[in-house]
Amino acid sequence: TYIVKDECIKCKFMDCVEVCPVDCFYEGENMLVIHPDECIDCGVCEPECPVDAIVPDTEDDPDGKWLEINSKYAELWPVITVKKEPPDDREKYEDETGKFEKYFS
Ligand code: SF4
Q1: Ligand 1 atom with minimal separation from the 23 CA
Q2: Of the residues 43, 47, 54, 105, which has the maximum number of CB atoms within 10 A of its CB?
Q3: Nearest partner of 7 among 42, 73, 51, 71, judged by Cα
């Protein structure tokens, strides 16, 4: 499966939702997640993300933290299938680290 990581937090470009053939993105207040059981591993969303927040779960998630977050919140948040307006202040957060601890919701 593919997963969304902390680069998405407070950024939310949402270009990914337009290309997903199975509509498996779910929307929280500050980020999106992918439902790992619904993702068919097509990979088309990965290059759509301007901040490289989407990766295969086999890459860059050694302790499985992000896979767990994607699994958990995809069950709790509503599905999103149409791109909305990204937040106006997103550039402020682009290069920030530790966004999960500070802003995740
Ligand atoms: Fe959707 Fe394909 Fe991305 Fe999985 S890899 S979230 S199926 S676009």
Answers
A1: 1
A2: 54
A3: 51
Q: Quickly name the fold that domain 2-86 has.
A: Alpha-Beta Plaits (3.30.70)
Mutate to test the pocket of ligand 1, among 18, 26, 42, 46 (most ligand atoms within 8 A of CB): 42
Query: Which ligand 1 atom sits closest to the C-alpha of 40?
Result: 7
- Residues 19-44 have pLDDT tens digits of 999 999 999 999 999 999 999 999 99
- Write down the ipTM of this complex: 0.96
Taking the C-alpha atoms of residue 37 and residue 50, their distance in angstroms, rounded to an integer, is 24
**Residue 13 exposed, middle or buried by CB count within 10 Å (0-12, 13-18, 19+):** middle
* Contact criterion met (CB below 8 Å) for 13 and 53: no
67 within ligand 1 shell (Cβ under 6 A): no
CA nearest ligand 1 atom 1, residue: 20
**Domain extents for the chain?**
2-86
